Every structure is written in structure tokens, then in C-alpha cells.
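Training component of the fellowship. As part of building independent skills, the fellow (R.M.) carried out the full modelling exercise for a liganded target. The chosen ligand was heme C. The inputs are recorded below so that the supervisory panel can assess the work.
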Amino acid sequence: MKTFAALAVTAALLGGSLPAAADGVLTASYGGQMTETADGWRIEFVVRDGGIRAWVRDHGGKPVAATGKASLLAGGVKLDVPLKTDGEMLTGTAAVTSADKVAAILSLSVNGKPVSARFAQEALTTPQLSTQASAGKAAFDQVCASCHGQSLRGSDAAPPLLHPFYVPGSGHGDDIILSAATKGAKAHHWKFGDMPKPEGLKPGQEKDVLVYIRAMQAANGLGGSAGMPTSMDHSGHMKH
Ligand code: HEC
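Fellow's submitted model of the complex:
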């Protein structure tokens, strides 16, 4: 059974860079929530400031054309949002932000068949911040928020930092966050491309930013590896 062993090793080596993990974990490309429909379509969904995004892919991760609409419930208001195609992405404009509590039902047509999927986002919790975390917030809002979002939930340019990938005890420890804050990072998880070296942090401010990111993660249920499903464990990061 030499061939099997060789395949297993190859799969392990490639594991970190496969678009959708072969072990059945649904991997997002843009930091969004994932669901798999009964027909096997994989749908990724995110709420941005001013609208929503969705991607429909087949079980191999290949983008699939879709049309349709979304019904959102945000702040007690129901919004009907037509979706437009923008490359591989469906976009909808709506009076929501990435910090809001939002419930969404997507009603799509994929290959002429109706497909529906539900998603929900919790409201962002901003905790009482320590002096250092407040300083970190000011620096983050100035230097990082344009890409990672003021809510730390990502944007069309960068992934969410309120994500199991980046919690304490994950593959991305404090050193990885400090390194990204000072030097940038090569694209390796998502499809956003490389993170350039951030402009505008004074030496030492990266530590304040780290304290702020950790405070926001803890306040939003991402306190550490204890709450992280083991399937999210992230061995790809040995490469760092
Ligand atoms: C110009 C846009 C941009 C700015 C500004 C930016 N980032 Fe990023 N960041 C990205 C992108 C894109 C990635 C995703 C790289 C990948 O695919 O893993 C990323 C990834 C990261 C990661 C994960 C790094 C890793 O090695 O996995 C951390 C942590 C991070 N950013 C923190 C920050 C902090 C802190 C700041 C502000 C000091 C910041 N970023 C500013 C675009 C940006």
C-alpha cells in the first residue's frame, strides 16, 4: 500500500494551501460563514459595512453562477436585497454594518434550481478597554481598519481578525500578529492577496494593537483555543 502512504503524505503537505480542505471542513475563501446545502452547493456569506456578499461554489470549491435575493433582518427591520453578480461574488446593498446583528436568508437560483441558505451574525461586543487596549484601538482604527474593518470583521480587502484562525492558542500566536503588524504577511489562507507592510505604526504600537485585538476576540466569544473546534486547528502555520 505504498501508493496510499505517498498520497497521504502529499495531502498532508498540500493541506495548508488547498482551497477546500479534503477532510470535510468547509473552508471560506474570504473569511465568511460557510454552509453546504442539501444539493451540495457550498455557500459563503459575509456582512460588510453597507451590504452583503455571497459566493456559491460546488463541492470541489469551483465557483458556480447564481442569481437571487437575500432577506435580511437587522435592527428589527426586514430588508429585501436583490443580489448582483460581481465576478465570482454576489453583492447586495443594504443598510447594515459588519458590527450589526443580522439574520439572512438567501434565495438563489443555481443551475435553474432554487437553493436557499440561512446565516446569522451576532452583534459586535466592544468591551471596556484598558488604557493600553484603548491606545491599540486608536492605532488599529488609523492603520488597520481600512482593510480589516473597524469591527475587526474584515472587508473586501482583508480577512476578519475575529476568527478562530487568529485566537490565542491557534496557529497564529502573538508572534504572528506582531509580525503581521510590523512587516505584513504573504497570502496563505484567503483569496485577498498579500498584506503589505502597514504604514503608520510607531515602534511599540504593535503591542497595543495586539492587546486590543485580544480584548475584542475575548469579548466576542473567541477567547482561546478552548472554544475552538479541533478541526479548525491549523497546522498550516508551521510554515511561518
Ligand atoms: C492594505 C490592507 C491591509 C492593512 C492596512 C492591514 N492588513 Fe492585515 N492582512 C491583510 C490581508 C490581505 C491579509 C491576509 C493574508 C492571508 O491570506 O493570510 C492580512 C492578514 C493579517 C494577519 C494574519 C497574518 C498571518 O500571518 O496569517 C494579521 C494578524 C493581520 N493581518 C493584522 C493586521 C494589523 C494588526 C494591521 C494594522 C497594523 C493590519 N493587519 C493592516 C491586509 C491588510
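The panel noted the following from the submitted structure. Residues 1-23, 226-240 have pLDDT under 50 and may be disordered. Residues 143-144, 146-148, 157-159, 166, 172, 176-177, 180-181, 185, 187-190, 192-193, 195-196, 198, 201, 209 surround heme C (CB under 6 Å).
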